[in-house]
Amino acid sequence: MDMATMRARVRQDLRDPSGDRWDDDTLDRHITRAVRECSLAAPREATASLVSTGARTLSTASLGDRVSIEAVEWPAGQYPPAYLAFSVWGDTLTVEAASPPPSGEMVTVRYGALHVLDGAGTTLPERLQDLVATGAAAYAAIEWSAYALDRLSTGGDDTWRHFHTWGQERLAAFAKGLAKHGRERRLRSRRLYAAATPASAGARPVEG
């Protein structure tokens, strides 16, 4: 799956194979928006190693495609993994442990990242590709219906209404799919990444 293939799939859903109503740039914009929405609900799983300075805080600024922090592991490489309680504010990750990792130690951060969909391919799993197509087609249909509302349509006066209704139905299906994948992700995170040490009173893993 690449951008051209996804665009063709969206055109098929919109019944616009020849591009009479939507040009490529417009559909690419809607596809990119849908990919981002899917990334927020079900991000790409990524891992990075950050070097401790001996303080309780670590900078996550290098994780430019970050959506969320799922787990902080230290000491790294143990079995079973040693997950630390943490909190996040902006690009600062704070370890909620009695003693922070010593200076120079590698701290493993497991995080959710934005998915990629471009001319070279995609990081989207198959289960999300149909959802992206649904969302992109919905955005395109609703935008076109708003544009066409006060303009003469060769398909008749009610063409804009058809696209608006169809787009709203697809948008509802898209939102339902996002909610489902978001719930599954939260349940999985709670099962896999329990902290090795309890957080201090009132502290919990959060995203800033």
Q: Secondary-structure map with pairings?
A:
Elements: H1 3-14, H2 24-41, E1 44-51, E2 57-59, E3 66-73, E4 83-84, E5 86-89, E6 92-95, E7 106-113, E8 117-118, E9 121-122, H3 126-148, H4 159-192
Antiparallel strand pairs: 1-7, 2-6, 3-4, 3-7, 5-6, 8-9
Helix pairs in contact: 1-2, 1-3, 2-3, 2-4, 3-4
Give the rounded overall mean pLDDT. 86
- Name the overall outline: elongated
Name the poorly predicted regions. Answer: 196-208
Number of helices: 4
The helical percent reads 40-55%
Task: Give a structural overview.
The protein has 208 residues and is of the alpha+beta class. It has 2 domains: 3-41 and 116-188, no CATH class; 45-114. It is built from 4 helices and 9 strands. It has helices spanning 3-14, 24-41, 126-148, 159-192; strands at residues 44-51, 57-59, 66-73, 83-84, 86-89, 92-95, 106-113, 117-118, 121-122. Strands 1-7-3-4 form a 4-stranded antiparallel sheet, with no helix packed on it. It has a 3-stranded antiparallel sheet with strand order 2-6-5, with no helix packed on it. A hairpin with a 2-residue loop joins β5 (86-89) and β6.
